[in-house]
Amino acid sequence: MAPLVRRLIDIRFTRYVLASVGALAVDVGTFLALLALSAAPWAASATGYSLGILAHWLLSSRTVFGTDVADRGPARTRQKALFVFSALVGLALTTAIVAGGAAAGIDPRAAKVAAIVVSFFTTWLLRNHFVFRTAGTP
Fold first, then answer.
1. Domain locations along the chain
2. d(CA 87, CA 59)
3. What are the pLDDT digits (tens) for 2-18?
């Protein structure tokens, strides 16, 4: 059983899921705390997601895409900019879905769940295919 578990942990997508869970804990924890403080759902969602962005960079650049992180200098700056761009796409999707759900009378927590799913797959595709793509990778 141990070799199977080790093999699963080595799979990039599985590691991305685990890094996402860590970032999601930051995101949702912040979101729920701000909702409890009567913040507007869109603002709570945007703030939580923004803090999750930082957590996700720290986790994914070291544990998921560590071999594909660019060296210091212009290449690393470009990669960070692309990561932030992918995060902003996720942030826009998340904020729009939560705001739209709240405007439609949907519980903000339920809208947040839908936003998490959409944002997760969108940012995975962007990061795997553009942000952390190595020179020889199609």
1. 2-131
2. 14
3. 676 666 556 778 888 88
